Amino acid sequence: MTLAFLVFFPMIAAVLSYVIGKYNKTARDNFVIVSCLVTMATCAGAVLGVINGVEYTLNIPAFCGMELNFELDGFRTLYALIGGVMWLCTSMLSKQYFAHHYHNRNRYYFFYLMTLGATLGVFLSSDLYTTFIFFEIMSFTSYTWVAHDETPGAMRAAETYLAVAIIGGMVMLVGLFILYMTLGTLTISELHHAAEACANKGALWAASLCILFGFGAKAGMFPMHIWLPKAHPVAPAPASALLSGILTKSGVFGIIVVSANIFRESKAWGNMLLVLALITMLGGAVLAVFSVNLKRTLACSSMSQIGFILTGIAMSCLLGHHNALAARGALLYMLNHSLFKLILFMAAGVVYMHLHKLSLNDVRGFGRKKPILHFAFLMGAFGLMGVPGFSGYVSKTLIHESIVEYVHLLTHDGLTGAATLYTLAEWIYLFSGGLTGAYMIKLYICLFWQKHPSEQIFYNANKKYMTFLSGLALFASAILVPVLGVQPNLTMDAIADFAGGFLHAGTPEHHVEYFSWVNLKGACISLGIGLVVYLFFIRTKLMRNENGVRVYVDLWPEKLDIEDRVYRPAIMWLLSFGGLLAQIGNEEKLENKVYWPVLRCLSFTGAVVSKALGDVLDELALIFTNTFLKMKHYTETVRIGNIFTDTVGGFADKTAEVLNQTIFRRHPHAHHYTGTLAGWWNGMLAAVRKMTHTMSYGLLLFGLGLCVTLIYLLLY
User: Fold this and answer.
1) Of 124, 238, 320, 547, which residue is the least packed, with the fewest Cβ within 10 Å?
2) Residue-wise pLDDT tens digits, 305-324
3) pTM value?
């Protein structure tokens, strides 16, 4: 009953909130907060139950003999509680955040609660089939957060987010098919023994790589990170806190499932994951250093911090049964990053809801003489930087020490060459931590120490910048950072003991002295690097004098945008390939022998089916957008047609001409038939054009994914 309540109560509450919002917006806001409070309280009760040895399992018959399976253990209850806390805090801030200058709040709250239920479904799932179902629901419902403002920038970012989510989900689905056919199970607790007994390691790797791609896309792992820097700046700040703080962790959840079960002691998997982790970590940190947008900096920071977490998971695989420090560090880093990004994005939301600006040159000085905001941001910054005495220091230290431990093991075994490579990885880790300090110092000084050249008096006069609920949410979450970090052996170690079983974390061989010089040294090196980068790079290269005022400048080259420079051109090339084949088909022999005989048989049927599909999808899109996604503020001029649609359109016109001259040449209504055929083709093409620029494109892809799932279940 507890598990069913946690997953489905927020979804039922979403429908109720939408209905209530039609009549009373204040009642709806309060209802959402109460719903999140009830969910969090239930999660807290589940934690106490697990501590007392209560077993929670739930099996719900689905279809075709499949079931939705859920269970609770230490890790699952911990992250359910984290989710409950994050949704409660952001709901308290949302009431003030959306009070002015925002539309479609009813839609936002509906998908806000739907995503809560879907996210809990992911973390509470006990098999990868259930994980996949709720993972896809979560991706679909959270899409509306990114698109909420409906500006051209928001819609483009939402398009990227949806594309990454759908492509990642479909690749993951292929991986799950292969994994099930290879191992005969998708139950998480059975994967390790099944993988050990599996002789077909090639199929196991193929499946796992596909699953890694799907979960890595949601986590923001390189090279599927492209949605992170674009989605966070345009999404509402409470949604950004959830996107960064917990939805990315649903991707990490899946990576842990594969790494800690299928490849628990695999050196090859650990090395591959470590390389991806280091690139993600360093790349995100560099992007954050160059960013001059408050929320984009935090978004790039999220990418970098995911790299830190993945480093811990990778080291856990490399260390095998000596993985205590690495696995516990990865777990605690997940917890800490969720907390830090909750604080920092809510603080950014306080800034944005007053200024509606995010450029550092516009928001500088806003935090002066605002003690609660100042305290909260400082706690989040100190935690993220790994300052000793704060919770982030504990997780950073554990992962760093796991790298050092592996270097020592390699050296002891006489593998000095390999040890040198991992020493390099250690320095990349420390340097990335230094860059974290540099960009957080930049944000902190900008908001709370620098003065705005013209608006500072107005900023200082804004005394009532937060309501009681907003201030409570920010302060309560911020105070946890030092509370958890001051006595880590009593707090952080206890959490690791409670939840570490999911990562199959070993028991530490000795008591960890977090504040010994050996452990403090790594933090001091990173903080020193951060201070040097800020003083001698950010202040000298990324700032300049303009009319006697020091301003931040964006020097990041646009040509390094991997989405615009690599991914989109690659997709367009694939579409262009169809145009190339059409040009080849212009040769008279090939045209007469191949194309037109086939087209004469299939064109009419294809036109009918395509037009019908286009009309159905367009009607679905119209219903959906009129109900939930009213594009009142979004207009964009797009080129009508592309290489693909133009090519098909050319075939349609040619087909109509051929049919008119052959099949229908003696028919009295020939012109009517061929005109109807061409009209249906043109209607189909118009539907395709609309689908590629509206919500129906996402519906089509989502529907195709569900169809593939259903077909597989029916046939196998």
Assistant:
1) 547
2) 999 999 999 999 999 888 89
3) 0.81
